[in-house]
Amino acid sequence: MRKARRWLAVGAAAAVAVTGLAASPAQAVPISPDPSTPTVVFRPAEHRIRTMLDDRVTTARFGTSFTGAVVDAATGRVVWTRNGTTGLMPASTTKLVTATAALRVFDASHRFVTTVKRGPWSDQVILVGSGDPSFSSAQVAALAATTASAMKASGRTTVRVYADDYLFPAPSLATGWKSSYVPADTTWLRALVVDGRQNADTSIDAARLFAAELTANGLTVAKVGRGRAAVDAPVLATSAGATVGQIVTPMLLDSDNEHAEALHRLVSIRTGHGNTWEQAQAAQTAVLTTERLSATALHDGSGLSRSGRLSGLQLARIMANAFEPGNTTRLSLLRSEKGLPVSGRTGTLKASIGRFTTTESTCAVGRVHAKTGTLSDAVALAGWTVGGDGQVKTFAFVVNGKDASLSLKQGLDMLAATVTGCY
Q1: How many CB atoms lie within 10 A of CB 75?
Q2: Which of 215, 240, 267, 278 is such that its CA lies 20 to 30 A from the CA of 284?
Q3: Closest CA to 5 of 254, 250, 375, 323
Q4: Are the CB atoms for 253 and 369 separated by under 8 Å?
Q5: What per-residue string of b and e applies to 338-358 under the rule 16 or more CB within 10 Å gives b?
Q6: Which residues are the signal sequence here (predicted)?
Q7: 141 by DSSP, 3-state: which?
Q8: pLDDT tens sequence across 174-196
């Protein structure tokens, strides 16, 4: 079993207990807005975060649809919130949920295995998709070489090739997806795709590439089509792809939608929920519940859905969950230097695309680790940093109803810089 959650009750004792820091009058600022509630003791750095964010989160800059929160990762204590329980479109910060689920269910070292099986007729070879979004042309070549050797050994030089992508159901739009999202923002989700190639039918594309490699290995391919392999059919070749950790990394750094949706569906299948959108949603909820987390409403793994809703507090707590003592191994990628985009340096927070380049945020270059989120009228930033008190703070800021302009994104960079204490 996981270690019991060590987040402490909100109160003076909570702040005193954090990493052994004493809460003397010179070190802490008591805040008790309501005499009927316990006094909450904030460190000076936290008090500054509260004051600065209160001043800087303005309607003029962020509009009226805003949710935000800052949480002390060591205790789970809420440092600051504005409309913290209001669920808004989270866009690609949804991928933090997908990453949490994939790393929790599979572990970062797990690899998905693509196989080639023999069909019911001796000249049939079936490429069976595992849903692996990292499946590569190098793997196709290796599978073909092994398969060709096996077929020649059995006296077969002419074969029929089939793609088995039945691990996933026929592609469809998720709840809240615009029809334009395919192919503009993602491909149809299928269990076979090579090198992330953008094709209307990635499974048949994979079968054709496999057939071409078989031809290069001396076989004649008489047919390419779609077909299902029997569960107990003889296996001719296998190939393991990248690790889950290696799949999660580009999903977070570059906001890869295909990786996200594949992992979303694979988690559902692995946990026994099934392979449909609705079943994947149920699996997503179940994993969050296991982690004692919640989501207002989610319908996919990528965050493309316009029906998805997460609040600032939900996102900040999802991020803080990675720092839980019981999660130091499985969710360590979310805390690593390579796990999330780094302010002004990597992924979707690179300076070359305008992130952390203003006078308000350049002081935080290299100090913020966060997932971005962007839809046409939604911008979000959720992640972690080390505050002025030397303690990890997780945060989330989400804006809806405004054009997703660079200036709006830079406004969220400014709020993240505020959490570090450098601005």
Answers
A1: 21
A2: 240
A3: 323
A4: no
A5: ebbbbbbbbbbbbeeeebbbb
A6: 1-28
A7: helix
A8: 999 999 999 999 999 999 999 99
Tokens for 40? 């909450």
Q: Is 385's pLDDT higher than 60?
A: yes
| 232 within a domain of the structure (yes/no) | yes
* Domain assignment of residue 38, yes or no: yes
What 8-state DSSP symbol labels residue 342?
B
Judged by DSSP in three states, 124 sits in strand
364-402 burial, b if ≥16 CB within 10 A, otherwise e? bbebbbbbbbbbebbbbbbbbbbbbbebbbbbbbbbbeb
Q: Would you say residue 29 has pLDDT above 70?
A: no
In angstroms, the CA 192 to CA 416 distance is 39
Rounded CA-CA distance 274/248 in Å is 21
The Cα–Cα gap between 395 and 250 comes to 21
User: What does the pLDDT average to over 246-250?
Assistant: 97
344, β-bridge pairs:
350
Instruction: Indicate whether 133 belongs to any domain.
Output: yes
**CATH number, domain with residue 231:** 3.50.80.20
**What's the gap between Cα 154 and its chain centre?**
45
* pLDDT at residue 16, rounded to an integer: 28
Question: What single DSSP character describes residue 70?
Answer: E
Which among 195, 213, 242 is the end of a domain?
242
How many Å apart are CA 179 and CA 136, to the nearest integer? 28
Could you read off the pLDDT of 53-85 as tens digits, one per residue? 999 999 999 999 999 999 999 999 999 999 999
